[in-house]
Amino acid sequence: MINGADFVKTSTGKTQLGATLEAAEILLNVIKDFNHKTQKWIGLKISGGITSVETALTYCRLVENIMGKDFLTPHYFRIGASSLLQEIVSCELKSQN
């Protein structure tokens, strides 16, 4: 962050252990502290293991609790959820039938 990162990320999403709520909470608190010291906002990307809408919403609630609703925008918060796409598509197909 000191060297100019725009975002930090929980995981590459390509490892067996991806994002965890604990890691996200630590990163959010570091981002918040960094903002208080520098007045610069750094974004957070949650990656790895986000395979359900419920899990994604759990991360959204964590972000809102720590950072507030204004942080819940793509400018600051992103979810790397390529595996979640399949669940969303499946739900959409079911609702159309």
Which helices and strands appear, and what pairs or packs with what?
Layout: E1 7-9, H1 21-38, E2 43-47, H2 53-67, E3 77-80, H3 82-96
Parallel strand pairs: 1-2, 2-3
Overview of this structure, please?
By secondary structure, the protein is of the alpha/beta class. It has a single domain (7-96), classed as Alpha-Beta Barrel (TIM Barrel), CATH 3.20.20.70. The protein has helices spanning 21-38, 53-67, 82-96; strands at residues 7-9, 43-47, 77-80. A 3-stranded parallel beta sheet has the order 1-2-3, covered by helices on one side. The longest helix has 18 residues, at 21-38.
Helix content: 40-55%
The succession of helices and strands, N to C, reads EHEHEH
**Total domains, how many?**
1
Task: Summarize model confidence as the mean pLDDT.
Answer: 87
Return Rg in Å: 15 Å
Instruction: Walk across the major sheet and give the strand order.
Output: 1-2-3
Distance between the termini: 48 Å
Runs in which pLDDT lies below 50 for 5 or more consecutive residues are none
Count of DSSP strands: 3
